[in-house]
Amino acid sequence: MIDPWTSSVTWLSDSFVLPFLKLLHLDGLSGDPREISGALLVAALQVGIIGFLFHPLETWMPAEHWTDRRLTRVDRNYTLWMLLGIFPLFTFLVLSPLSTLVAGGSTTSGPATFGVTAWVPALNGHPVVLFAMYYLVYDFVYFWMHRLQHALPWWWALHSMHHSQRQMSCWTNDRGTLVDGFLQSMVLSVVGLAMGVAPDQFAWLMLFGELGQNLSHTNTRLGFGPVFEKLFVDPRFHRLHHMRADAQQPGLHNCNYGQVLSIWDVIFGSALFGLAPRPTGVGDPTVDADNGHGLIGLHWVALQRFWAVVRMKSGWRLGEVSFGPGYAPIPVGSYTEARTETKARTETSRLTGDGSDDDQDPLRTEGAVQPMDECQGLRRVGAVG
Fold first, then answer.
1. Which of 31, 167, 191, 231 is least surrounded, with the fewest CB atoms within 10 Å of its CB?
2. Torsion sign over Cα 334, 340, 343, 344
3. With a threshold of 0.85, does the pTM exceed it?
């Protein structure tokens, strides 16, 4: 980057990061302390943009009106923990040594011997084009990884913590277990290193992607218009990905998996546009209970789900699931049929005077936004070509 950036990274490394690592006896590891400094500065920039730009948007033009923001606090605290602590350490302890290993242990400067610039040397003179190529691949891999997070039950046991949030806000992007974050980071890091992306470049790729996701999770009605919404993920687009399951249209929420680029959803037939804002969260009561926990409790129950499901054969069968007794994965079709049968029995009991009309549909949650007409402005975009 430019000299002021390099100077800032070096100053932070020499003044704070290296002394801190020496205090913890971690300074002898193969990672470069400047990688922590760079990640910290990038994280500080990201937090500033979230707090001073995206958060005000939620006040000026909210998609949902909340009487309080109690549920968003845990996401805010976790975001600060991740960006200013976990990710910089991950860069130092894992990404930087892995980059050195992939490069064959070479730390000298000179022409690239591995990655995109080694295969297409002309790109060395076009950093913007090179970065765009890096990000295109990065976002494409993220799209398919995200789909797998929803389709593989043991991964959904982790990722469902992210979707359990009823008050999705600009802080929700980083809501997730450390195991889920580690798996995502490793997948994306390996792809980045295979392309020859240096750790400092990877931090900027992450910033670009993360800021896009911070914006898309923002509780705002902001949209990019009929043309650009087909290319880039806006808050209206991603809010549909987080909408609660609908008993009348059970598969409607299986849409809009893109990170920053919505074009992948358009190409592969998972894009959904034009539906009015709907309440966010999950229909599975087991996962919805996440909202009753704080930062530590959230991780504990999500890890319990994961540890139970990953050891089951059904935890490795692709398909959308809810979680039953003992966190056993239940295919959503079976869950819906059982719920319908239960509601029918409840209605029969109510009519005959044998039951109570207080039974709640497990898909209903207190404080939900009333759903709009399902046909109003609904456009499911199929595969191109």
1. 231
2. negative
3. no
